[in-house]
Amino acid sequence: MMLAKRGWNVTVAERHAQVSYADPDRSYVYAIDGRGRVFTDAYGLTPKLAEAGVDTKAVEVNRVFPNGKVVNARQVIKDEARIVYWLPRMNFVRLLEYRVKEQDMAPYITLLTNTEASEIERLPTNSSSSSSSAAQQVQVTLRNTVTGNTQRFVPKLLLGCDGMNSLVRQSMQHWAAADSSSSSSRFSMAEYPSLSTDLRFKVLQLPPNPAMKDGTVLRNPSFCLLAGQKSKSIGGPPLRLGLLPIKDESVGRTANLITLPDHPVWGVSDAAKLYKVFEEAFPQADWRALVPEPVMAKFAASQGGQFPAPQHSRGMALLVAPESPPGPAAAAPDAAAVKGTGVLLLGDAAHCFPPDLGQGVNSALEDVCVLQRELDAAGDDLAQALPAFEQQRQPDSEALAKLVQTGYPLQYNQYPLLRAVWSARFIAHMLVHKLLPFAISPPLFLMIQDPSRRYSSVLAATEHSKRVLAGLAVLLVGAVAVLLQKLLPKLLKVFAAGSA
C-alpha cells in the first residue's frame, strides 16, 4: 500500500488461496494499538478499524470458575492513546485488501495467490562475471503451488515479509557469508530467553456467545477466562481457556489453550478422551453441547503451535546496487524515479516474539511507517533510504525483543508462584511511579503502547527504573536494619523485665 501510494508497481506473493486465509488451528486475534493506528490513520483505515474491532474504552472482562462462580469486571480506558482495537487477523487483512482494491491503488498492485518464492538469486550486471561483488540485481523465482508454473522477477526493491523462517533473510545470510566484506552473521537471528518461550498453544472453535451450564453467556465482544482445575484423567497443572473479544456476535469465537510444552493434555489425541478431560477440568460448561464431535476431534488431533523466543535479525537491509542497473529492470514503470536496488526485511522476518505484549502486528505496521519516512527523506533513493531505515529501526528491533523478555511472560499462568511475585512487583512499581513520577517511569506494559516513544526509548526508561527501584530497595532494607538495630536492645530489655 505504501509503495503503491508512491506510484511504484508492486507484486505481492501470497502463499494461500486468499490473503485473508485463517488457519483454524491458529486463529489469531490482533490488538491494534496506538503504534498500529499511526499506519491506519495514514491510509484512512481507522474508521473501518473502529467499525470492525472491539475497542477497550469500556469492555467486559469475565472469569468463570469451575464451581460456576462468575466474576465480572469492566475495563475502562480514558486515555485515547492507550485504546486498543481487537479483531481477528482475517478481518484486519480484509481491511487492507479493501484499501488496495480502491481506485487510487488497484492499478499499481498485482496480487499472486497460491504463490511462494522458490529461489532468490543475486545476478551480476555482466553475465560473464561470477564475482558476488559485481552483483547488481536480484532475481526472484515465484512458483504457483497449484499449477507448478514459475515466474521470474528482477525487482528494484525486494521486501521480505515472509515470516520467522524467511527465505529472503536466509538468502541475505548466504550472500553475506559469500562476501568477504560482510559479517557472515549479519542476517542471523539474535535470540533472548523468556519464560513464555516454547509454550504450546492451539485454538478451539466455539459457537457465537457460548453459554455455560448455569446460563451465563460469554458474549463475543467480551474478554473471558475459563479457569480450570486438575483433570483426574491426565493429571498435570490446571488448564485455562482464554477467549479474546470479537465484535461480530453472529460468528463463532475461539478459545486459546496455552500450556507448558510437556503438559499431559498434548498426549490426548481423540475426541472421546478430550471430552472427558474438559468435563473434569472445566465442569462449568457442557462440552458435548458446546462443541460438536468433529470439531473436538480436529482440536484433539491438532498439534497447534509453539511460541518462539524473542528474537531479531542482526541486519535488516542490504543494498545490492547503489545505482539502477541498465536493462529491463530500469525500464520498468516503477523504476523511473527509483535509484538503486536493495532487499529489506519487515515484520516477523526481521523480529518476532511471543504475543505477550501484542506488538507483533503493531511493530510490523510501524516498520512500514518508518520506511515511508526514510523514502520520503531520500527521494526514493534506495542507496540512502535502506541504510537510513536500518540505522533507525535496528536499535528498536533489538530493544523490542529485549522488552518482551520481561514485559508480561507469566500471563499464561504457567508458573503460578512466579506470576504472583511478578504481579506484586508490578503493583509496587505502579505505586512508586505514582509517588515518584519524575524518577520512575510507568511499567513498560503501559509505555510500549505509546507511538511517540521508540522501543529503544522504552527499554532505556525501563532499565533506568530497574536501577532506581533496586536502589530504593537497598535503602529500605538498610533503613529497616538500622531501625531494628536501635530497637532490638530496648525490646530485649522490655522482654527481660516482663519475664522477671
Topology (elements, then pairings):
Layout: H1 2-5, E1 10-13, E2 29-32, H2 34-42, H3 46-52, E3 54-55, E4 58-64, E5 70-76, E6 85-88, H4 89-100, E7 109-112, E8 115-124, E9 135-144, E10 150-153, E11 157-160, H5 167-178, E12 189-191, E13 200-206, E14 223-227, E15 240-243, E16 253-259, H6 271-281, H7 287-290, H8 293-301, E17 305-306, E18 311-313, E19 317-321, H9 328-331, E20 341-345, E21 351-352, H10 360-378, H11 382-407, H12 416-435, H13 444-447, H14 455-499
Parallel strand pairs: 1-7, 4-14, 11-20
Antiparallel strand pairs: 2-6, 3-6, 4-5, 8-9, 9-10, 12-18, 13-16, 13-17, 14-15, 15-16, 18-21, 19-20
Structural notes for this entry:
Residues 127-133 and 327-335 have low confidence and may be disordered. The protein has helices spanning 2-5, 34-42, 46-52, 89-100, 167-178, 271-281, 287-290, 293-301, 328-331, 360-378, 382-407, 416-435, 444-447, 455-499, and strands at residues 10-13, 29-32, 54-55, 58-64, 70-76, 85-88, 109-112, 115-124, 135-144, 150-153, 157-160, 189-191, 200-206, 223-227, 240-243, 253-259, 305-306, 311-313, 317-321, 341-345, 351-352. The strands form six sheets. Strands 5-4-14-15-16-13-17 form a seven-stranded mixed beta sheet, covered by helices on one side. A three-stranded antiparallel beta sheet has the order 2-6-3. It has 500 residues and is an alpha+beta fold. Among the domains are: 2-57 and 78-187 and 321-406, 3-Layer(bba) Sandwich (FAD/NAD(P)-binding domain), CATH 3.50.50; 416-486. The chain is built from 14 helices and 21 strands. The chain starts with a helix and ends with a helix.
